[in-house]
Amino acid sequence: MAVSWPDHFPSRLMGRRLGSSGLSSFAIALEAWRRGLEVTFTAADLHLYTVSNSEKNVKFNFSRPDSHTTREDYLRLDRKAETNAILASHGIPSPTSKLLEVTNITHDQLRVIASEIGYPLVLKPNQGSMGRGVFSGIKDSEELFDAFQELTVKQKQKSILIERHHTGDDYRLLVVGNRVVGAVKRIPANVIGDGKSTVAELISAKNDRRIRNPFLESGLIKIDYEVRKCLTDQGLTVESIPPNKRKVTLRRVANASAGGDVQDVTDTIPENIKEAAISAVRVLPNIYIAGVDVLYDASDEENYVIIEINSRPQIGVNMYPSIGTGRDAPKAILDSFFPDSSRPSEDGFKTIRFNPSAVRDIFAEGLASKVTLPHLPLEAFPFRQRFLFEAIEGAVQLRPYTGRIVKKMARTRGISGKIISRDDGSLELFVAGRSASDAKTLVDKVSEFCGQIPKASAWEGIVTVGFQIS
């Protein structure tokens, strides 16, 4: 099925191993930096950062604007039972639920509460995220006790929410201010049989595909208790070989971080669902950005409930769906908080990034308590070329001191790029600068060190600001 992602955030720009939440930080900070706003990081894992201009400062924690949202504001959302109560008090559909304190609940009491709410049920931690520890579609007391045992004994949860299970598909709507900027349908983790591979092999193959998605790479399918239980319900094990085209469900919970698929539905989800999500955020004090989780039955537009609201949503789920059009969430967020700033129109800015690893290294070495990114060159490096030094008589190498000279030259001339030593003994020099004349001195110096004139060609890759030698 067709898929496309935001032009200004191609997968090769994002790199690897950002993590689902770290992707939010990097994408928002990158958008701000490209707009000429000042970006300052105050944590080694980059989750705390401030975006500012001459008029305002906005402190972010991943995707949450902490300068606008107090600790009590977001803790209120973390406590799911409290969120349900607030929504219900404003007439916003939410599940019938009850909070259980584990130390005070016996199996007999659990059975009574379950019968009062009515099967099927959902059991989940009162505080948690990313679908961890959520057991849905519980049909009877035996399944209920098994899930309760898993949560209390193995996961050591002290506070559990039991709620009525509602039918319908699982949707995540990203609300920024007073509008929905993206909506996705979340599909529980699954594999499709080919008549030859075991379930375990199908999972491995699907994980290989997920690794190529900047968001889904951090939500690989893991074979755990929930997966094995789901397979058992279908008369399968991880060693079973499903028939060709048979869909095998691996989890009941539809969460991308737990291995689920994501389909963009921004343009097709009904307006009343969007309005409900906006209304839900509006009744929660000081929440400006939120991920609103909705269960919705497409056969009946009025049959929906809001099951959870996240004050620190992973915007990557809306940027990088498995199916459909990814939404430019960073732009929407910066437009909301800094409406007078604008994204540069030159195409060159689409392939420029700062180096998050370099920022982390400064913190790791204890060199600073905060790191402010240097201003991005206004010209967006219009001159970009690759130079190849071939291995004619042995490998082409730069000595450590010559490497230091090259890096200093690049820094003083405002040149970004990299030098890579290849396995075949050749050396590649990538140069990005304002003009050919700016780059010529550096290229000539590397040519002098290598003892040859390189072959030049256009460089159309990603430019990471700074100069690296590897």
Task: Describe this structure as you would to a colleague.
The protein is of the alpha+beta class and 470 residues long. Among the domains are: 12-63 and 330-372, no CATH class; 96-164, Dna Ligase, domain 1 (2-Layer Sandwich), CATH 3.30.1490; 383-469, Alpha-Beta Plaits. Helix content is 31%, strand content 24%. The protein has 14 helices and 25 strands. The strands form seven sheets. A five-stranded antiparallel beta sheet has the order 5-4-3-2-19. β21 and β22 (427-433) form a beta hairpin. α2 (20-34) packs across α11 (329-337) and α13 (400-412) runs antiparallel to α14. The longest helix is centred in the N-terminal third of the chain and has 15 residues, at 20-34. The two termini are 38 Å apart. The mean pLDDT is 91.
Write the layout of secondary structure elements.
Blueprint: E1 3-4, H1 11-14, H2 20-34, E2 38-41, E3 48-52, E4 57-61, E5 64-65, H3 71-78, H4 80-89, E6 97-101, H5 107-117, E7 121-125, E8 135-138, H6 141-154, E9 159-164, E10 169-176, E11 179-187, E12 190-192, H7 199-210, H8 225-233, E13 247-249, E14 261-264, H9 271-282, E15 289-296, E16 304-310, H10 316-319, E17 324-325, H11 329-337, E18 352-353, H12 356-364, E19 371-372, E20 383-389, H13 400-412, E21 416-421, E22 427-433, H14 436-450, E23 455-458, E24 463-464, E25 467-469
Helix pairs in contact: 2-11, 13-14
Number of helices: 14
Strand proportion, as a percent range, falls in 15-25%
Radius of gyration using CA atoms only: 26 Å
Give the spatial strand order of the biggest sheet.
5-4-3-2-19
For this structure, the quaternary state is: single chain
Helix residue percentage: 25-40%
Given helix and strand content, the structural type is alpha+beta
Which parts are unreliable, with pLDDT below 50 for 5 consecutive residues or more? none
Mean pLDDT: 91
- Head-to-tail CA distance between termini: 38 Å
Based on CA inertia axes, which overall geometry fits? globular
The total beta strand count reads 25
Largest sheet, in brief, is: 5 strands, antiparallel
